[in-house]
Inverse folding.
C-alpha cells in the first residue's frame, strides 16, 4: 500500500517557485503557476496539485508546453474574446483570459473568453475564484485529453471537462468545481498509485463494459485502445448518463467550439496538446444591488446547511465549505503527498537541476526505487 | 396497467388553443403556450406536455397563475435584465425574456435575463431553441417547487432545476435539456400513473433513505413530509451526488439568486408559485465566423455519432437527435397520451367549458371513473 508524507505548504511553494524559475518562467509567471497548483493541494484536491507536476515536467520535456509562448488575443469584441495560447502553460493563459473576462464584465456586465492551443491549466475553480474574489460571478471550463466515453460508446471522445462556478457569499463564497465525468482521471491515477481497485460505476474497459481495473483502464486510455471514464450518471440512461455527457458537451462548447480550437478527441496529436478553455465573468450589480444578491445567496446556503439531515448523516455541505476547512487544516498539518507523487517530484527536481534533498530531506532517498506506475504520463 | 391512446398533434393543438382562449388568454398568448406544450409532446418528452395540463388547470383555478398578468422589466442594463412576471403563465414571460436576451446578444454579444414571480414554464429547451433558431447559442434554466434533496439531506431544497442549451448545427441543432435531478418529478408521476415501482437510485423516502414507492414519495413531497428526488449522481459522493447538487445550484443562481426571487425551498407559499427562470443568449459571430463555428460543432457531433459503440449498443446519440426523430414519428402516429392524463384533459375541458367529446370522442366517456392518482396536483 502506498504511503503519505505531509509536506508544509510554504516548502511546496518554495519548491514550485524555484523549479518553474529554473525552467525559464518569469517570477510573476512562477507565482501564478504555483498559486494554481497549491490552491488544489490546500483545498484537499490531491488529484490536481503536486500529483500533476509530472504532467508539466513531461509536457515541457516533450515540447508540448512552450515556456516562452506569448498568448495572443485573436478575436476581440465588447463582451467576448478568443485567445490563441500558442502552446503556453495553461495556468498563464488561463489567468490572462479570466482577467480579460473580468475587465469586460466590469464594463459591459458580462465577459466570455475562449482559449485554444493551450495546455492543462490546473483546477478550473482557480479561475472562477478570480472572478468571485473581484465580487463577480465566475465560471471556468476546460477540455482535456479524451477520457469520457459518450453514452453507449466505447472510445473516449470528451475530456473530463470540468465546469467550475464561484460567487461571493458569506461566511465563504459559493465555489463548485467538478468534472462532468463521474470522477477525474486524477482520481483513477490515485487509485492506481495506491494499488487499489476502482469503485464500481466509474470506468469502462476497452470494449465499453464496466471495469474496476485501474492499471488496465489507464493503460488502455494512454494507448487509445478504448475505454475510459463514465459520464456523471454512469453508463445507462436510466441513471442519467446522457446528462453527464450533455454537461461535458456544454464545457466543450465554451472551450473548443467557440474558439475554433481542438475538440478533446483530437488533443495530444502531432506534438501539440491543443487543450482549450472557457471563462465567463458576470457582474451581479447589473442585475440589481450586488450586496443584496450576495446576502440572498448566503441566506439560501445557510438554509441548505441547516436543512434536515438523512438518517445517519451528521451534516449537509454547501459547495466551497470543504475547501475552506481543508485549507485551514492543511496550512497547519501540511499537504498529504503520496510517496509515488513524491518520487515524481524528486525526478522533477533532478530534471530542472535543483537538489531534492534540500526540499525533501530523507524522503528524497526513501523514494529511490525502480517501481513506476503505468498510465500516469 | 395504464393504457395509452394516440392523439394527432393538430387535434391537441386545436384543443389547447381553444382551451387557453376560453381561460382568457389572447390569441398570440395561446399560440405561445400551445407551442411550448406541444414541443414537449412532439419531442417525446411525455412528462412535460399534455401530462402537465392539470398543473395549469389547477394553477389558474387556485389563483397561482394570473391570466391577466403583465410581466415587467424591473432592471435593465446593456447585457442583462430582470423581469418580474407578476404571477403570469411561465410560458409567456419565458418567451418575452428570451426575446429580450436575444435582442441584447445581437447588440452586445451576450444577453442574460432573470425572471422572478413566475409559474411553471414547460420545457426549458423551448427557450434555448428560440436562440438557436435565431442562429445563437441559447441557454435556459428554471427552478421549481422543491424536489431535489441535497446530498446527505432528507428534505427537498432545490427544484428539478433543468439546464437547457441549444446551438446551431447540421443536420440538426445541438439541443440538450435535462433536469439536474436523476429524473424529473414528471417521470415519477408517470410511474405513479402507470402503477409501477420506481427504478432504484431515483428517489428518497421521508427519512432520506432510498425508495422505489412512487405514491409514497409523491405524497410525502406534496405534504412536505420529507424525501424527494436524488441529484444526478445519486445519494453518495462516490458516484457524484454533490455534482448533480452543484448543477442544481448553478440553475438556482441564474434563476432565483440573480433576480432576487424565490429560491425553490420557498416556492408555492402564501398562494404564490414564485417560480424563477434564467435565459442566456450568446452570438457566436462575436467569437469569429459563425458559419465556421457551426460547421466545427457539426463535425464534432458527427465524430461522436460515428465513434465506436459499446458491446451490444447499436448507436451513439448526440443531443437533439432523438427529439428530431420523435417529432417525425409523432407527427405521423400521434402523441401517446396516458389514459390517466386523458382523464385530466377531459376535466380541464369541462373546467374551461368546452365539450371533451368534440376532441376525444369515445375516449371522453371511457375515462369516466372515480379513480384518481395521488400526488399529481
Amino acid at each position: 500500500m502506498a504511503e503519505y508524507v505531509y509536506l508544509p505548504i510554504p516548502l511546496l511553494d518554495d519548491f514550485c517557485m524555484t523549479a518553474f524559475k529554473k525552467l525559464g518562467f518569469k517570477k510573476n509567471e512562477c507565482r501564478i503557476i504555483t498559486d494554481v497548483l497549491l490552491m488544489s493541494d490546500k483545498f484537499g484536491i490531491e488529484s490536481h496539485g503536486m500529483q500533476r507536476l509530472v504532467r508539466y515536467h513531461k509536457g515541457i520535456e516533450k515540447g508540448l508546453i512552450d515556456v516562452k509562448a506569448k498568448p495572443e488575443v485573436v478575436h476581440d469584441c465588447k463582451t467576448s474574446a478568443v485567445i490563441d495560447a500558442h502552446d503556453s502553460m495553461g495556468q498563464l493563459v488561463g489567468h490572462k483570459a479570466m482577467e480579460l473576462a473580468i475587465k469586460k464584465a466590469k464594463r459591459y456586465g458580462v465577459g466570455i473568453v475562449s482559449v485554444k492551443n493551450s495546455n492543462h491549466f490546473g483546477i478550473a475553480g482557480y479561475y472562477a475564484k478570480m472572478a468571485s474574489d473581484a465580487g463577480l460571478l465566475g465560471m471556468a471550463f476546460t477540455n482535456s485529453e479524451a477520457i469520457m466515453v459518450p453514452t453507449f460508446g466505447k472510445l473516449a471522445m470528451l475530456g473530463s471537462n470540468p465546469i467550475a462556478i464561484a460567487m461571493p457569499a458569506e461566511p465563504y463564497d459559493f465555489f463548485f468545481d467538478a468534472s462532468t465525468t463521474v470522477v477525474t482521471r486524477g482520481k483513477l491515477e490515485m487509485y492506481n498509485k495506491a494499488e487499489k481497485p476502482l469503485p464500481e460505476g466509474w470506468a469502462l474497459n476497452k470494449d465499453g463494459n464496466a471495469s474496476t481495473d485501474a492499471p488496465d483502464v489507464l493503460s488502455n486510455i494512454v494507448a487509445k485502445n478504448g475505454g475510459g471514464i463514465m459520464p456523471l450518471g454512469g453508463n445507462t440512461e436510466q441513471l442519467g448518463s446522457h446528462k453527464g455527457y450533455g454537461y461535458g458537451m456544454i464545457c466543450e462548447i465554451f472551450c473548443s467550439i467557440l474558439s475554433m480550437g481542438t475538440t478533446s478527441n483530437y488533443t495530444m496529436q502531432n506534438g501539440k496538446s491543443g487543450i482549450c478553455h472557457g471563462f465567463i465573468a458576470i457582474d451581479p450589480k447589473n442585475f440589481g444591488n450586488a450586496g443584496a444578491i450576495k446576502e440572498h445567496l448566503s441566506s439560501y446556503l445557510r438554509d441548505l446547511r441547516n436543512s434536515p439531515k438523512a438518517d445517519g448523516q451528521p451534516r449537509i455541505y454547501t459547495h466551497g465549505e470543504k475547501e475552506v476547512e481543508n485549507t485551514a487544516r492543511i496550512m497547519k498539518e501540511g499537504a498529504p503527498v503520496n510517496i509515488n507523487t513524491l518520487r515524481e517530484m524528486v525526478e522533477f527536481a533532478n530534471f530542472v537541476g535543483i537538489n531534492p534533498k534540500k526540499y525533501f530531506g530523507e524522503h528524497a532517498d526513501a523514494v529511490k526505487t525502480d517501481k513506476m506506475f503505468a498510465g500516469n504520463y
